[in-house]
């Protein structure tokens, strides 16, 4: 029986496995960066000998959480938060890393990227003319700003899926608890 249009059956042969998009979330200092950075050493057949580590979170830049034996496997790329973060990530994801023997990209963290994109979108005024000015050129985000950043983030995730590269995308956890005395349970997940 022929499979329906649009999908391909890969079976169990690891040589036929497509690129991975792995999204990991956890609390600060939980070990997300350390775990992601071990991929090349732990499974080089799957993730290749080296990975690009996109240091969106300033703490990632110094490789502090990355084990010493994994540091030589990391090609660090630093994001400039004063320049369009979406455009920078898009360019990094579309760059021909395979020509350099790299098949895995680690984004550390997408949470910080979305926070920067939200600030940039808000301060641009593209989606609302009624922003509250908090002083110093900083404005409070409006509903349209959040929607725009959600669209940009989903676009980045789609780029990762279509890139032909392995992607490990890290997120911070955020827990929201109801105010004292109010009904409801804590909720949480990737921020």
Brief sketch in words of this structure:
The chain has 191 residues and is α/β, with parallel strands linked by helices.
The string of secondary-structure elements, in order, is EHHHEHEHEHEEHEE
What coarse outline follows from CA principal-axis ratios?
globular
Sheet with most strands:
6 strands, mixed
- What is Rg? 19 Å
Q: Would you tell me the overall average pLDDT?
A: 87
Query: What is the tally of beta strands?
Result: 8
- Please state the structural category: alpha/beta
**Distinct helical segment count:** 7
| N- and C-termini, Cα separation | 43 Å
Portion of residues in helices? 25-40%
- The proportion of residues in beta strands is 15-25%
Spans of 5+ residues with little confidence (pLDDT < 50)? Answer: none
Characterize the structure shown:
With 191 residues, this protein is an alpha/beta fold. The protein contains seven helices and eight strands; from the N terminus they run βαααβαβαβαββαββ. The protein has helices spanning 32-37, 39-42, 44-47, 58-61, 85-94, 110-124, 143-162, and strands at 21-26, 51-55, 74-78, 104-108, 133-135, 138-139, 166-176, 187-190. The strands form two sheets. Strands 1, 2, 3, 4, 7 and 8 form a six-stranded mixed beta sheet that branches. Strand 2 (51-55), helix 4 and strand 3 (74-78) form a beta-alpha-beta unit. The radius of gyration is 19 Å and the shape is globular.
Secondary structure: elements and pairs:
Blueprint: E1 21-26, H1 32-37, H2 39-42, H3 44-47, E2 51-55, H4 58-61, E3 74-78, H5 85-94, E4 104-108, H6 110-124, E5 133-135, E6 138-139, H7 143-162, E7 166-176, E8 187-190
Helix pairs in contact: 5-7, 6-7
